[in-house]
Design goal:
The structure is a single chain. By secondary structure, the chain is an alpha+beta fold. It folds into two domains: 132 residues, D-3-phosphoglycerate dehydrogenase, domain 3 (60s Ribosomal Protein L30, Chain: A, 2-Layer Sandwich); 71 residues, 2-Layer Sandwich (Alpha-Beta Plaits). The chain has seven helices and ten strands. The protein is globular and about 50 Å long.
């Protein structure tokens, strides 16, 4: 049976051009990075890899990434003014080119800092058609598309933690659409990324936080 493509797949996202991967995808990647960080950053050091590094400026990738960090959508007419708007919002953004190894050619690595001094590394790529994937959060290899609400749960790598978190979500009627677990090493810190069919409420998040050996939890909305 042949795959029936949606209109979105054929024509791409509604966007401020010129490229779905270098512009629209970059906006979504910036939005997802900010959502994973959980706050409006005040400083963003952004490393551009591969095609993002070589042709990104001509496609407005730098503007698009900053626009995404500011929470703009792909069709926001303010994208060309993203640098000026970032300055007004107190966001200091800088760009460098870097060789990130075998990463996807359209990859950006964000070093983000918040007003409270908290820092986070978020790396991701634009894979075409406006679709994106976050592939790294701090020390953890991950896979997050931003298409569904996602819970980011840091925990100690011990037996029963995953079962406890799953049970808490099930008790709240939250259905797990997908889960990926990454760890630094056996018995050390680990990270669960849990995609859900519906956003988890505050009560559900509090229940997960109470599970033994859960260190932190962040709720990342779909972007």
């Amino acid at each position: 049976m042949s795959h029936v493509r949606s209109v979105f797949e054929i024509v791409g996202p509604v966007m401020i051009g010129p490229s779905s991967s270098h512009t629209a995808g970059a906006v979504r990647l910036g939005r997802l990075a900010a959502a994973v960080f959980g706050a409006q950053p005040v400083r963003a050091r952004i490393l551009l890899h591969g095609s993002f590094a070589s042709t990104g400026h001509g496609h407005g990738t730098d503007l698009a990434l900053v626009a995404g960090l500011l929470g703009m959508d792909t069709d926001d007419e303010r994208i060309p003014s993203a640098f000026a708007l970032a300055k007004e919002a107190g966001l200091e953004a800088s760009f460098e080119t870097a060789d990130l190894g075998d990463a996807h050619p359209n990859t950006a690595r964000f070093h983000l800092a918040g007003p409270d001094g908290r820092e986070m590394l978020v790396q991701g790529c634009s894979v075409g058609g406006g679709d994106v994937v976050v592939t790294r959060i701090d020390d953890f290899d991950v896979e997050a598309t931003g298409e569904l609400p996602t819970l980011v749960v840091e925990h100690v790598d011990r037996p029963g933690v995953i079962a406890g978190v799953s049970a808490a979500l099930a008790a709240a009627g939250v259905n797990i659409a997908g889960m990926r677990v990454s760890r630094v090493r056996r018995g050390a810190r680990a990270l669960m990324l849990i995609e859900t069919d519906q956003a988890a409420g505050e009560g559900t998040i509090a229940a997960v936080r109470r599970v033994h050996d859960v260190l932190s939890i962040r709720s990342v909305p779909a972007v």
